[in-house]
Amino acid sequence: xxxxxAALEKARSRRxxxxxxxxxxxxxxxxxxxxxKAGQWSDLKEIELSGQALQHHxxxxxxxxxxxxxxxxxxxxxxxxxxxxxxxxxxITSPMPKSGKTTTSCNLALGLGRQSGxxxxxxxxxxxxxxxxxxLGYTSxxxxxxxxxxxxxxxxxxVRVGENVAVSTANxxxxxxxxxxxxxxxxxxxxxxxxSYDPDIMIFDMPSILVSDNTRAFxxxxxxxxxxxxxxxxxxxxxxxxxxxIAEYTNVLGVVLNAFRTKDIQSxxx
Length: 270
What we know:
The protein is an alpha/beta fold. Helix content is 40%, strand content 14%.
């Protein structure tokens, strides 16, 4: 545990050493932009999520509650830090699988959706093992890779959840994810989505960084990344390698230690 705490402190110091812009007042940092036209955003097909799927996968932020509070705290910290740096795109990844990154991605997106006037788009880019659709109980008729490659429009692939959240999901595994994630066309498509739909934050649920080169291929397209470490399977070496890998390509927004229990302390000493 001491090793992991030291690694987290080291990562925090490294981020603080990079010069930060002057902080705006807290109320300015979280205030939604006003006067935006609905535009193409309101034309996205609206869906109802499956309450059973949300409950099964611990997606708890549709409404404010005691269970939602940890994710609401994370939401506020993420929003404040991204706004003060002028960042709009966030990758969520982990050193190894089964760390809770998709749970965090879905809860963060839906929690942001409760903030009036803020627009959030969630993309399922874990293309070898997509699960955002499963967590939300929705299967898109069109594949996210077809949208990223420009074969179909974002409006024909993404859907809207309530007034403020849009979701772009994968409906099958991709045989060659790196080809999609590294493509210049993918970068261009995301720029067009940003320009047309004007989201405040785009969240990308990414593969675990140490199991393939897929996340590395994509990180150049985002402003920052959030690392999800799980108390019962993330080792110090895994975290350290993940943090260093991400820092080569983008900014490390922070680290979330997921599922920590007192009895897990010994696992960090291995």
